[in-house]
């Protein structure tokens, strides 16, 4: 009997045909930051078409299960047709990754490129240790340097005209 090696991994992602193990589990600080960000976004989205999902939430970027598959910390989807029982099938509008020692390099390189090429409109990289947020806005698949915010700043969410998040309430 042949065993599928993916079945032995608790959580994994596939980007450009490469399998990435998602272990170990995130730290308490990582989860605190994810929870605080999610709470702000979720509250804002009540009664709106867009929805926010917190990990683990599967995202199939190419609208097929054999393509790039990721599990962002927070995913915002504004097209209800993309939301299925399996997760998001297609490109979400916004993705947030909170850095951890095990995933930081991949979030800043492999995933940054993957999200940009897939057509994600906005990508945040949140660093709980430095208490910063890097905001990448991808328009017409063009790479621009990120805007960087720290704990004293209020970050405008580019995909929404009236949502701003105070980082002092995220990094507590």
Question: Would you give an account of this structure?
Answer:
With 172 residues, the protein is of the alpha+beta class. Helices cover 21% and strands 30% of the residues. It contains four helices and 14 strands. It has a six-stranded mixed β-sheet with strand order 3-6-9-10-11-12, sandwiched between helices. A hairpin with a 4-residue loop joins strand 10 and strand 11. The longest helix is centred in the N-terminal third of the chain and has 18 residues. The N and C termini lie far apart (50 Å). The N terminus is likely disordered.
Essential attributes:
globular; 172 residues; 4 helices; six-stranded mixed β-sheet; four-stranded mixed β-sheet; alpha+beta
Helix and strand topology:
Layout: H1 5-8, E1 12-15, E2 18-21, H2 28-45, E3 51-54, E4 59-60, E5 69-70, E6 74-77, E7 83-84, E8 87-89, E9 94-98, H3 104-108, H4 110-118, E10 122-127, E11 132-137, E12 147-150, E13 154-156, E14 164-166
Parallel strand pairs: 4-8, 9-10
Antiparallel strand pairs: 1-2, 3-6, 4-5, 6-9, 7-8, 10-11, 11-12, 13-14
Helical proportion, percent range? 10-25%
Strand content: 25-35%
> Strand order of the main beta sheet, please?
3-6-9-10-11-12
Total DSSP helices? 4
State the oligomer: single chain
Give Rg in angstroms.
16 Å
Mean residue pLDDT: 89
In the predicted model, the low-confidence regions spanning at least 5 consecutive residues are 1-7
Which geometry do the CA atoms define?
globular
**Would you tell me the structural class of the helices and strands?**
alpha+beta
Number of β-strand runs: 14
Order of helix and strand elements from N to C terminus: HEEHEEEEEEEHHEEEEE
Major sheet description: 6 strands, mixed
Gap from first CA to last CA: 50 Å
